[in-house]
């Protein structure tokens, strides 16, 4: 995006981008204005509900009692500490779409264009959506094909990346034996275990959360089928992997929820942690988590981590 006004943003910009997107997205796609979503007759077929306020479908075979399920998008804000921006400066951020949500890319682009007219931040700084590129996440390419250019308003075709989903962890062999794994958590990570927010991280807790998130995204947004994985058996194997070293700290931040009319604590841990043990068989899920994030609040960009071993698999 290219700024048309000067702008001051918070240190963590995920709340500003995601919050602004949600309000603009509803304004664009909602056909029944000024009506509570819970009472809307179009709720089961509504694009806003599917993307932004995702609920389990009536015919689901899992998570029937849950009020919401993982959203099919992630907004990754810039991770620098810069807060003040001047007119004409550019801000880059990442948008990750999952499964069927990829088909709605034009809605996302149009929404961010409209958000630029509304403005973001406390001062409602306006911006123009300058360029959209299709970054190759799997091979780490920093440059991608130009999908959209703000001046021409033309959306180019593209092929989405596919992440292979294993039937079972043992079915994947690694190119080398890996008995050590260093993860760097770049954004606040909110992981729950036994219904409590954990300030620390055991490997089996990480795997529990990754398996749950990946399988839910696969079922609800990709194939509408269950993954053929024995979760209990895989988690049992994950308990053998121990922490070798860690430097995790708690990052506190709050966001204001316009729907709940209150401030919400969204703090989580960041930093580095090294696991020791036979981590190789779990790498397909660890690498998928690099893209899909882990824990709660992923639409804000929370739960982003990177594999930082010298020899990556």
Task: Provide a brief overview of the structure.
With 313 residues, the protein is of the alpha+beta class. It contains 6 helices and 17 strands.
Keywords for this entry:
globular; 313 residues; 24% helix
Report on the architecture of this protein:
This protein is of the alpha+beta class. The chain has 6 helices and 17 strands. The protein is 24% helix and 23% strand. A hairpin with a 4-residue loop joins strand 8 (145-149) and strand 9 (154-155).
**Average pLDDT, all residues:** 88
Tell me roughly what share of residues is in helical segments. 10-25%
Spans of at least 5 consecutive residues with low confidence: 171-176
Major pleated sheet: 4 strands, antiparallel
Q: Based on DSSP secondary structure assignment, what is the total number of beta strands?
A: 17
Q: Roughly how many Å is the radius of gyration?
A: 20 Å
Distance between the termini: 34 Å
Strand arrangement, largest sheet? 13-16-10-17
């Amino acid at each position: 995006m290219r700024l048309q006004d000067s702008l001051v943003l918070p240190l963590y910009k995920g709340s500003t981008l995601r919050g602004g997107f949600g309000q603009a997205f509803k304004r664009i796609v909602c056909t029944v204005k000024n009506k509570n979503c819970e009472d809307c007759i179009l709720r089961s077929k509504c694009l806003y509900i599917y993307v932004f306020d995702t609920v389990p479908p009536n015919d689901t075979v899992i998570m029937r009692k849950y009020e919401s399920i993982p959203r099919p998008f992630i907004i990754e804000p810039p991770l620098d500490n810069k807060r003040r921006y001047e007119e004409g400066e550019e801000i880059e951020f990442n948008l990750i779409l999952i499964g069927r949500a990829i088909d709605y890319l034009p809605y996302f682009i149009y929404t961010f264009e409209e958000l630029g007219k509304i403005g973001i931040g406390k001062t409602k700084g306006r911006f123009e959506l300058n360029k959209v590129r299709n970054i190759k996440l799997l091979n780490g390419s920093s440059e991608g094909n130009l999908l959209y250019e703000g001046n021409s308003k033309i959306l180019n075709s593209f092929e989405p990346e596919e992440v292979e989903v294993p039937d079972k962890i043992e079915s994947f062999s690694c190119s080398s034996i890996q008995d050590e794994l260093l993860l760097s958590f770049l954004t606040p990570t909110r992981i729950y275990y036994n219904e409590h927010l954990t300030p620390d991280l055991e490997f089996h807790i990480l795997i529990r959360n990754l398996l749950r998130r990946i399988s839910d995204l696969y079922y609800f947004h990709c194939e509408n089928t269950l993954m053929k994985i024995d979760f209990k058996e895989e988690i049992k194997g994950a308990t053998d992997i121990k922490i070798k070293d860690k430097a995790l700290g708690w990052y506190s931040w709050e966001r204001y929820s316009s729907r709940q009319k209150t401030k919400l604590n969204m703090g989580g841990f960041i930093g580095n942690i090294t696991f020791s043990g036979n981590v190789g068989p779990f790498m397909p899920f660890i690498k998928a988590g690099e893209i899909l994030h882990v824990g709660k609040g992923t639409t804000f960009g929370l739960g982003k981590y990177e594999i930082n071993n010298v020899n990556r698999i």
